[in-house]
Specification:
about 400 residues, alpha/beta, Molybdenum Cofactor Biosythetic Enzyme, Chain A, Alpha-Beta Plaits, 5-stranded mixed beta sheet, 15 helices, globular
């Protein structure tokens, strides 16, 4: 099964918009055992769209097009589709009536642009859009299938996940099973080193290392009816080699895992953050139900705030500096005392780009985790990257240290 993706929009090429649609569609297909053979991004230009679609149809069984289905002048995908498939554009009275009814039910006045959205290529299968006005389009000819979906992510995703991927997977004759594990704290090179012999000794399994600033995702894929058993056998070999690097044998965020551990242990947590500016608190509270374990978060960016809000001794800061192990400990223990929680994560560091010295360079971070009735645990980090990466990695490291202590 050969599938290609064309994403349309000048904003994708200029860098003003991150192409998350390509990422989502690729992931959805991969989970269904189908790999994208090619992906390109092109501008909202009629001739370029026609040429790209014809080229992809010459190679692929399925072509997915994302973008250009709106009602404005730069949305020209429908006209390009009609030209490629030699179809006329026809007006759908029932589609217009449905769109008008939806807008009226939401207390909105239907505009003239809805007439444009009711025009579709003849003999096309239309995919309902439960969020917006642009329906999805499926056109088939000579054994080739083209799918066009809106470029707005919240409109595109239900169409891809609920309608398109199941159709493609049903036609695929190669059953590929993939599993993704989430790791953190180990660089990609170390993961590869400990797994090198497994990779060599298991040619029937495809290994992928997917690094980011938060860690490395490991994806294992196998083909055929015995693929689940093959991956089960492999998992038993991988687990002891990766020790504490794996925080989940699925693709989820560390904050979900840590939150689940806190909830299962009936523990509460508070956060004391300086250089991360509340990132740890945000990640934990992004998880539904986090009110069961998150009590409070202190963003103590200044030295005075560390003293006023957490009770950090000013002499401690004067003697050791705000970015130091003693201050991190005082922050964590101050958070647990002030919030009456079972544990706390404290982070203080130099995120840059300024503020570093030879003794305390940019990227230096101290993390402390205080646990009720236990000694406070600390870690010193020397993180690489820009300001955003250092902050993200520090927040991840704080969560991971708590995970290891709770394990």
């Amino acid at each position: 099964m050969n599938v290609e993706l064309i994403t349309i929009g000048g904003e994708l090429l200029s860098g003003h918009t991150l192409n998350t649609n390509a990422q989502f569609i690729g992931e959805q297909l991969a989970e269904a055992g189908v790999a994208l053979a090619r992906q390109i991004s092109i501008p909202d230009d009629h001739e370029i769209i026609v040429s790209a679609i014809r080229e992809s149809l010459g190679r692929a069984d399925w072509v997915i097009v994302s973008g250009g289905l709106g009602p404005t002048n730069d949305d020209v995908t429908k006209k390009a589709l009609a030209r490629v498939f030699n179809r006329t554009l026809v007006f759908h009275d029932e589609l217009l009536a449905m769109l008008k009814q939806r807008y009226t039910a939401r207390g909105r006045e239907p505009g003239p642009f809805l007439d444009t959205q009711a025009v579709q290529p003849a003999d096309a299968e239309l995919i309902p859009n439960e969020v917006g006005s642009a329906v999805g389009i499926i056109l088939t000819d000579s054994g080739k299938t083209l799918v066009a979906v809106p470029g707005v992510p919240r409109e595109m995703r239900p169409m891809i996940a609920g309608h398109i991927v199941p159709k493609i997977a049903a036609q695929s004759k190669i059953g590929v099973v993939s599993r993704t594990w989430s790791t953190t704290g180990w660089p990609e090179s170390r993961l590869y080193e400990v797994m090198e012999t497994l990779i060599r000794d298991n040619p029937d399994v495809s290994f992928a290392f997917l690094p980011s600033e938060l860690g490395v995702k490991l994806r294992f894929s196998a083909k055929g009816t015995d693929a689940p058993k093959t991956l089960d056998r492999l998992a038993n070999l991988v687990r002891p080699r990766l020790e504490d690097a794996v925080y989940a044998e699925e693709d989820i965020g560390l904050e979900i895992v840590v939150g689940g551990m806190l909830r299962d242990r009936h523990m509460t947590i508070s956060l004391a953050e300086s250089c991360t500016g509340g990132l740890v608190a945000k990640r934990l509270t992004d998880v539904p139900g986090s009110s069961a374990y998150v009590v409070s978060g202190f963003v103590v960016y200044s030295n005075q705030a560390k003293t006023d809000l957490l009770g950090v001794d000013p002499d401690l800061i004067l003697t050791h500096g705000a970015v130091s192990e003693p201050v991190a400990i005082a922050m964590a223990e101050g958070a647990t005392a002030r919030s009456h929680t079972d544990c706390a994560i404290a982070i203080t560091g130099i995120a840059g780009p300024d503020g570093g010295t030879p003794e305390k360079p940019v990227g230096l971070v101290w993390i402390a985790v205080a646990m009720k009735n236990n000694a406070t645990t600390t870690r010193e980090l020397r993180l690489m990257g820009d300001r955003e990466m250092i902050r993200a990695r520090a927040a991840q490291a704080g969560l991971n240290l708590l995970r290891l202590l709770l394990s």
